[in-house]
């Protein structure tokens, strides 16, 4: 937990504050199971925000890295090539500051590596229906004795096997299919809906149990029960509270570093959530990213140089949710619900240039996840990139002219169009065809037989006249549909598609 979590502000919920102090008392041997955190703020291009206190939960693990580094280098398994999985295979790779030892799925291990099969761990037997839980809750509220409810929460969130024992429809079934997660969604909803209204010590116990689960479950191949546990923990409403963000970040990191086959299962399970729950997950992740970029209280979080993996991890999980949303027709939520308006206030061109330079490599950029960037932000990126390309092409033309010892001409800096009003479309098409090398230069229009300099007015008039002529019904290129108020390609057979190419360049 962070310093802010161990010494919370007066405004922090008491349950979270108590959970923070309990975590400090946790067993040190269990802490050494946490994955190492690589400090790569500069490499991730995320050096934003002010510095705060470094969390004990995060900083302690950094020291463990040095102790384990040599052993990991000697004993790390060979990289296993996984088959491409449809729907999630095109997601951007994990950034260097997120990628630790990427976990292997048990199903992905080749037969020669698996070795002798071990018996499945015996799951604790803790059957409880929604009705049983609600009766215990009502009794606790009426009598003030929360012992039974407290015991349920402590036991359920103590480990991944306990989570499966409590929330699986059938503890003896495997549910190893993408179609059914095997999770009792009604019980999960009831337990989490009641959680924030329980006494502080219960909420504290749940957070402590999650910490212990994440520490304990780091090593070893992933089973479907592990995936179910991640699927359940993602829905915890306590992660709406900023004081729990250190725990939430480690949960997101473990999910982000799962192998592609495991992501495939999670995507198909996520699409089965209700619209309300699905939207809550998306909003929670967007808020997490926004508050990490622009924290209201910077002292609540570790400095970005120490937790640069937070935002890439959250973005990866958002990508899984976006993929799940796109598998449903109609989608669970509109695509605009994935937009993060906070990104409108960062240096978008820096993000764009990082993406242009490194692509979908291990250098993080929000442009790797375009579904979170709003239309307004994308418009700014495209417009500025276009302007920069115009300047770059014009400069290169000037350099080429000088290098050949020719006299520079100002007209070479522009895409010069000379057209006749009576033959506007054909002349424009001819000019664009002949001057393909100049298409990225700034446009300058001259009407034949008319005196005048194009200071922007003639170009504007050219666009206006060309638009009217191209979309006029008598011209036959497009048909107007009254129902949708849109133009669409005409159904008439066309022998010459060059004019449609002109429309593409023009657009």
Automatic annotation (TrEMBL):
<dbReference type="GO" id="GO:0000209">
    <property type="term" value="P:protein polyubiquitination"/>
</dbReference>
<feature type="compositionally biased region" description="Basic and acidic residues">
    <location>
        <begin position="21"/>
        <end position="34"/>
    </location>
</feature>
<dbReference type="InterPro" id="IPR044611">
    <property type="entry name" value="E3A/B/C-like"/>
</dbReference>
<keyword id="KW-0808">Transferase</keyword>
<dbReference type="GO" id="GO:0061630">
    <property type="term" value="F:ubiquitin protein ligase activity"/>
</dbReference>
<feature type="domain" description="HECT">
    <location>
        <begin position="435"/>
        <end position="507"/>
    </location>
</feature>
<protein>
    <recommendedName>
        <fullName>HECT-type E3 ubiquitin transferase</fullName>
        <ecNumber>2.3.2.26</ecNumber>
    </recommendedName>
</protein>
<dbReference type="InterPro" id="IPR035983">
    <property type="entry name" value="Hect_E3_ubiquitin_ligase"/>
</dbReference>
<dbReference type="InterPro" id="IPR000569">
    <property type="entry name" value="HECT_dom"/>
</dbReference>
<keyword id="KW-0833">Ubl conjugation pathway</keyword>
<feature type="region of interest" description="Disordered">
    <location>
        <begin position="1"/>
        <end position="51"/>
    </location>
</feature>
